[in-house]
């Protein structure tokens, strides 16, 4: 009997119109979302439902420094691929999302990285030829095979699908998919966002900051997050709980980008 599938979490930043990317990249820049992404995907414990304690303290310091140049990129925290800890998290992504990560930041540090691609054999072979140490980077032919592999690794704790559109759609259809860490983003018009396109969405006020920012604008996107059905519900207070209350500001504004973190669960 194969081990049961691990629960699947998704993490995504999405506009009000469901946009997540444009021409292979993310059209906005949001350091605090990068820090949140790193904290949650590296340190969230599926067993406790919160980030591991020592991580929350470090995250608080980084969060406070975010405005002063911290968090430019995803980065590698310790560079040990999680090997120094007894448990590690894993991230699963599509080949295009993998290619969108700057080489200096990949594989994402302190997590097992699994890339889904039809060219998995040749990419795995190429990778094996360039590394002599046990690697935390794997190429797999499907989401299911990625999950089967991770289910058989005892030290894997939480598993995250980190994009893009194609893999999110597959994950959402999977019965193991139970939680979405969602960052809602919108343009506030208070900063300059290169390449951004005004596109008023006409939606209502949820998550806005001031009356002025409630009339949200978005970015031009060609990749979209699938629509979540009514069985997906916002969990009140979940962001504070998950981060052990160490993150000040589950919503805010940074460089012309408004954001609000949420955790949704399938009920
Ligand atoms: N806003 C966010 O939070 C966020 C997060 C991540 C990504 N993004 C954005 O999303 C966009 C990329 O999304 P995307 O949908 O174009 O690409 P993607 O999902 O990242 O990658 C698609 C590729 O993954 C492989 N793949 C997916 N499902 C597979 C399966 N069942 N079996 C085998 N291979 C499979 C295929 O690779 P092969 O062609 O090699 O077979 C496919 O071409 C980019 O703009 C990126 O910046 C945004």
What's the arrangement of secondary structure elements?
Elements: E1 8-15, E2 19-21, H1 31-43, H2 53-65, E3 88-94, H3 95-100, E4 111-116, H4 120-130, E5 137-140, H5 143-151, E6 156-161, H6 165-172, E7 177-187, E8 223-224, E9 232-234, H7 238-242, E10 251-254, E11 257-266
Parallel strand pairs: 1-6, 1-7, 3-4, 3-6, 4-5
Antiparallel strand pairs: 2-8, 7-11, 9-11, 10-11
Helix pairs in contact: 1-2
Bound molecules: NADP nicotinamide-adenine-dinucleotide phosphate (NAP).
Domain DHFR: 7-266
GO molecular function: dihydrofolate reductase activity; NADP binding
Organism: Gonapodya prolifera (strain JEL478) (Monoblepharis prolifera)
CATH topology label: Dihydrofolate Reductase, subunit A
Order of helices and strands: EEHHEHEHEHEHEEEHEE
Overall mean pLDDT stands at 83
Low-confidence stretches: 67-72, 76-83, 191-215
Major sheet size, sense and barrel closure: 9 strands, mixed
Total number of domains: 1
Per CATH, the architecture is 3-Layer(aba) Sandwich
Folded structure, characterized:
The protein is an alpha/beta fold and 267 residues long. It has one domain (8-257): Dihydrofolate Reductase, subunit A. The chain is 24% helix and 24% strand. It has seven helices and eleven strands. It has helices spanning 31-43, 53-65, 95-100, 120-130, 143-151, 165-172, 238-242; strands spanning 8-15, 19-21, 88-94, 111-116, 137-140, 156-161, 177-187, 223-224, 232-234, 251-254, 257-266. The strands form two sheets. Strands 1, 3, 4, 5, 6, 7, 9, 10 and 11 form a nine-stranded mixed β-sheet that branches. A two-stranded antiparallel ribbon has the order 2-8. Helix 1 (31-43) runs antiparallel to helix 2. It starts with 7 loop residues before the first strand and ends with a strand. The structure holds NADP nicotinamide-adenine-dinucleotide phosphate. NADP nicotinamide-adenine-dinucleotide phosphate is lined by residues 12-13, 20-21, 24-26, 93-97, 100, 116-119, 141-143, 162-167, 170, 223. Residues 12-13, 20-21, 24-26, 93-97, 100, 116-119, 141-143, 162-167, 170, 223 line the site of NADP nicotinamide-adenine-dinucleotide phosphate (NAP).
């Amino acid at each position: 009997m194969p081990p049961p599938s691990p629960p699947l979490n998704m993490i995504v930043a999405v506009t009000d119109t469901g946009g997540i990317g444009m021409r292979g990249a993310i059209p906005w820049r949001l350091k605090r979302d990068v820090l949140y992404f790193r904290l949650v995907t590296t340190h969230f414990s599926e067993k406790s439902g919160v980030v591991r304690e020592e991580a929350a303290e470090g995250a608080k310091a980084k969060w406070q420094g975010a405005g002063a140049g911290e968090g430019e990129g995803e980065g590698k925290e310790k560079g040990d691929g999680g090997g120094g800890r007894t448990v590690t998290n894993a991230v699963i992504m599509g080949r295009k999302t993998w290619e969108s990560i700057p080489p200096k930041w990949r594989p994402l540090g302190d997590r097992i990285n699994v890339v889904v691609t039809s060219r998995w054999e040749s990419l795995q072979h190429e990778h094996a030829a360039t590394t002599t140490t046990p690697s935390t980077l794997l190429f797999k032919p499907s989401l299911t095979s990625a999950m089967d592999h991770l289910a058989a690794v005892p030290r894997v704790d939480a598993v995250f699908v980190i994009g893009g559109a194609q893999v999110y759609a597959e994950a959402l259809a999977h019965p193991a998919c139970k939680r979405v860490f969602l960052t809602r983003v919108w343009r506030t018009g208070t900063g300059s966002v290169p390449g951004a396109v005004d596109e008023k969405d006409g939606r209502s006020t949820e998550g806005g900051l001031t009356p002025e920012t409630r009339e949200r604008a978005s970015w031009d996107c060609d990749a979209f997050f699938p629509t979540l059905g009514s069985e997906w519900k916002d969990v009140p207070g979940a962001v504070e709980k998950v981060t052990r209350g160490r993150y000040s500001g589950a919503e805010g504004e940074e460089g012309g980008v408004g954001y609000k973190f949420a955790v949704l669960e399938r009920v």
